[in-house]
Every structure is written in structure tokens, then in C-alpha cells.
Amino acid sequence: MNLLNQIRFLPYRVARRIGTADISRVFGIESSNLQAVQLEDQYSFEEITSESFGKLIKGYPQFFSDDQLTELVCNNVYCFATFHKEKVAAFAWLATGDVAAEFNHNGDLQAGLPVFLPPDTGFVYNVFVMPDHRGRRLYSSVMRELAGRMNQHGVTRLILTTDATNTSSLKALHRMGFQALGSAWLLRVGPFSMARYPTSPVFGTVEFGKYTGDRRLVPPVRSRAFSPEIWRAFGRYDAPCANAFPARHDAFSRSEIFCKLLRV
Question: CA 114 to CA 96: how far, in whole Å?
């Protein structure tokens, strides 16, 4: 990261030390448009099954756990790994359907951000390349292989988030042809919290939920409990369909909410 960006994101880094903070960029791509490099011959790529996951837990306990094994068995979750001489060189995870906040955070669970996906879209997360194998475009190769495998499951689009300060990841995503879809950010210190979300839906059909640490009084993103009139009062309903999801995630104080509801 250059000096200008270091200065630009200094308040963000300080905020992460004293509270909870997140600035995430959202990216998506049609798998057919992915511009990724082919995996080199000395590497092999595998989908990790629940039966073989135990070997990864024993060999790499710092990266794999029993909790992840449970996720692999019980959820719409896939794990992929690239091997070099029978050792893990890189790995990536992908989830489909409703993705819980615990799968999308920056290390602080309060910065977890849930994602709701249609059947043709997969959420890529927890991509990691071992230090000894960096500089070989393995991130790109893993995405290429992963996309090919998921096509067999009817997943033809990929979406992911990455930290705004992760310049190497941002450059790699741009090289692969990923489309920037928006940003999400959260700041929470004690009882005080602020947040902003991408205009929903992103990528046509993808919805983002609410940060775990966003303590503001905001109606749930996917709730249909409120009538169209209520959503209009919050400025969140701008579609002709009565079942449409709210379009924005602005927050209001309790007094503002009370006054708006009185005017409905």
C-alpha cells in the first residue's frame, strides 16, 4: 500500500484497534467472463470432502477446524484446495443460499455481514495462499478451477467481499475481470454504531443483510412484515411489487421512526 493510501486508511486502522470497523468492497463476475490463469502442472486442485477434511485439520490446525467440518457437512458450503507435493499451497471456501455473517467478516465477528444469494450465485470467502507459493498467481488459478467445478452445480456467478486496504487482492480481482458492485462499511465504538450498505440488490439479485455489530434500530432487510406504506415511510420502498425487498439500509432514531409511522 502506498503512502497516500496508508494515510487515507489510518483512521480505519485506529478504529479497528479501539472498536469494530470494517470497509469492504463487493465484487462479482459471471463465471464465463473470468480472466484467470491456468493452474501450473506441478499443482493439483481438489474439492475437499467431509471424509478428507480430517487430514487438513491434523496437518493445518491453524487454518482448519472441527467447526468448519460441521459447516461442510451441514451447510451449503464447499471447500477447495490446491496441493503441491501433497502439501496445501492454497485453499478457498464457497457458500450458496443464505450465507451467515460468520462466513463474511474481517476477523471480528461483530463485522460479520450476511449475504442472501439466488441459486446460480456462489459466495467466495476465506481464500488463502501459503507464503511459499505467493507470486505465482495461485489466487487466479484457484478461482478458475473453483468456477469450473461450481458450474457443475449450477453456480454460474461468483460474488465476494474484500477489505478496502487489501491492495494485492484488489489488483488480482481487477485482473480477473471482477466487477465492482459497491461498498459496505461499519464503525462501532461502545454503544455507538454507524454503517452503510451497498444499494440493494447488487448483481441483480444478491441481497446484503445487516452487520452483526450494527446496533441501530433498522427494520430487517428481508422482512415482509411491514406493509408497502411502512416501507415508503422509511424511504425504503421504491418498487411496484408489494413483496419487493427494501432498497436502502438507512437508519433512523427511535423518535424519527415513531414520527414517520404516525404519518403513514
Answer: 12
**Please, which residues bridge with residue 179 across strands?**
28
Say if residues 56 and 87 touch (Cβ distance below 8 Å): no
Residues forming beta bridges with residue 128, ordered by sequence position: 91
Q: What is the CB neighbour count within 10 angstroms for residue 162?
A: 21
Q: Are 93 and 78 in contact (CB under 8 A)?
A: yes
Which CATH number, 3.40.630.30, 3.20.20.20, 3.30.420.10, 3.40.50.2300, labels domain 25-189?
3.40.630.30
pLDDT in tens, 180-222: 999 999 999 988 999 999 998 999 999 999 999 998 875 545 4
| Nearest to 109, CA basis, from 164, 165, 186 | 186
| R_g (Cα) of the chain, nearest Å | 20
Condensed to tens digits (0 to 9), the pLDDT of residues 29-44 reads 999 999 999 999 999 9
C-alpha cell recorded at residue 182: 459497491
pTM for the structure as a whole: 0.81
Query: Which DSSP symbol is given to 245?
Result: P
